[in-house]
Amino acid sequence: MKYTVETEIDLPLGKVIELFDNPDNLKYWMDGLVNFESISGIPGQAGAKSRLIFRMGNRNIEMTETITARRLPDEFTGTYEANGVYNIVKNRFISVPGNKTRYITENYFEFKGFMKVIAFIMPGSFKRQSLKYLQDFKRFAEDDIRNLNVIQLNGTH
After folding, report:
1. CA 10 to chain centre
2. Which InterPro entries match (predicted)?
3. How confident is the model at residue 148 (pLDDT cuts 50, 70, 90)?
4. Mapping DSSP to helix (H, G, I), strand (E, B) and coil, where does residue 54 land?
5. DSSP labels for the chain?
6. Most buried one in 19, 23, 26, 32, CB count within 10 A?
7. Could you report the per-residue pLDDT of 90-99, keeping only the tens digit for each?
8. What does pTM read for this prediction?
């Protein structure tokens, strides 16, 4: 299964990359993320491996992330392996007029066993989840700037 999703963020490219490139921010926009821990390599760099645990419904899903390419803003690609699922996600960020950023993900999935059945029955659920992560990141990024501006206006820093 292959598809692309995208959103436009009302922030300049540099700020979007700064927010995206900080693994401490994952918990603010990756719904269901319970734990993110480095396994090997330098976190966020090509070759790094991390373990992610998501709570989905009443069960935990563990996956291993391997960063395969890091050339931000042009590309940040990783593989994500979980029980019965192999996923490649290529993230791209493009500066657009009006001091905005287009965030694009190209997604590729391979399924095994029972997950083949799930993917066949509900193929749209994977695309909806990918789009939700983009929209949640957009909301986090734009709200982060609004909150920072409020703090600065109030004289607190």
Report:
1. 17
2. START-like_dom_sf (IPR023393)
3. low
4. strand
5. -EEEEEEEESS-HHHHHHHHT-GGGHHHHSTTEEEEEEEESSTTSTT-EEEEEEEETTEEEEEEEEEEEEETTTEEEEEEEETTEEEEEEEEEEEETTTEEEEEEEEEEEE-THHHHHHHH-HHHHHHHHHHHHHHHHHHHHHHHHHHHHHHHTT--
6. 19
7. 999 999 999 9
8. 0.85
Number of domains in the chain: 1
User: What's the CATH number where 90 sits?
Assistant: 3.30.530.20
**Residue in 137, 82, 141, 81 with CA at minimum distance from that of residue 105:** 137
- Helix 13-20 crosses helix 123-153 at what angle (to 10 degrees)? 110
Beta pairing partners, 4? 106
pLDDT digits (tens, 9 = 90+) for 113-146: 767 667 667 767 888 889 999 999 999 999 876 6
| Structural domain span for residue 137 | 2-154
Is the distance from CB of 135 to CB of 101 less than 8 angstroms? no
| DSSP type of residue 80 | E
Please state at what angle helix 114-121 crosses helix 123-153, rounded to 10 degrees: 80
What tokens does 147 get?
A: 């909150």
Q: Extract the tokens encoding 12.
A: 């300049």
